[in-house]
Amino acid sequence: MGEAMFRRNRGFSLLELIVTMAVIAIIVGIAVPSFNSMIARSRISAGANQLVAGIQTARLLALRSNARVDLCPSTDGSTCSGSDWRHFAIIMRKGGTPTPQRDVQINGTGIVAVGSPLVSASNKIWFLADGFARTGTSTAPGKGTVSICTTRLSSENARDVQINASRVSVERPTRAGCGSPGEPLDTTL
User: Fold this and answer.
1) What HEC string does 31-45 produce?
2) 115-149 pLDDT per residue, tens
3) Are 188 and 143 in contact (CB under 8 A)?
4) CA pair distance 41, 103, nearest whole angstrom
5) Any residues with CB less than 8 A from the CB of 38 and at least 6 apart, and which?
6) Ranges of each domain in the chain
7) Residue limits of the General secretion pathway GspH domain (predicted)?
8) What is the dihedral of CA 121, 122, 125, 127, to 10 degrees?
């Protein structure tokens, strides 16, 4: 009988287990929405970064090759076609012959609309050997904005990639709605 009184209980009681599970459930309930927002912000920033990298690549290629280089939406990756900036191509035009250089697709579910046409006539950005961005049919250095937007965020749900002649910047505005893929969100010229 003496040994039974001093025997140690091993493990957890049912009450301790239930309290622990409740605490874990509360922590997970708080963390999951924040984690989803973090993933959405990361995806939209990655899309904007891909677009900035494409712009910088096109500019560098124009400087290096002394030729015109176009950056434009593309459905096939080798020609300027379509209006959805989630898929764009970098095309060098040396001697008038278009040569595809790079095909980029912005990935990420939840990015509903990418891009606003920079100009209604051509929907492209192009560079000459001086490295200045141009839009439309004008040979003068230009400026424009390509917007990337998601419905998965309530604030700072867009990234505006702004091209101003030789400079590229990214802003984080909040948009009321995102529209559908390829739909113009904002045209600034």
Assistant:
1) HHHHHHHHHHHHHHH
2) 444 444 567 888 888 989 887 677 778 777 777 88
3) yes
4) 24
5) none
6) 13-109+118-141
7) 48-166
8) -110
CA distance 158 to 43: 11
Pull the structure tokens for residue 63. 């400087």
Residue linked to tokens 């278009």: 98
Residue 25: predicted pLDDT? 93
Helix (H, G, I), strand (E, B) or coil at 1: coil
**What residues contact 126, with CB distance under 8 A and at least 6 apart?**
58, 68, 69, 70, 71, 133, 134, 135
Residue with tokens 């995102």: 178
Nearest 10 degrees: CA dihedral of 94, 128, 75, 106?
A: 130
Joined together, the tokens standing for residue 13 give 């009681």
Assigned fold of 13-109+118-141: minor pseudopilin epsh fold (3.55.40)
Which of 67, 62, 125, 70 is CA-nearest to residue 94?
67
Amino acid at the residue 122: S
Structure tokens at 53: 């990298």
Residue whose entry in the numeric block shows the structure tokens 């390509």: 146
Chain position carrying tokens 């993933």 = 39
Give, for 112, the enclosing helix (H) or strand (E). strand 111-114
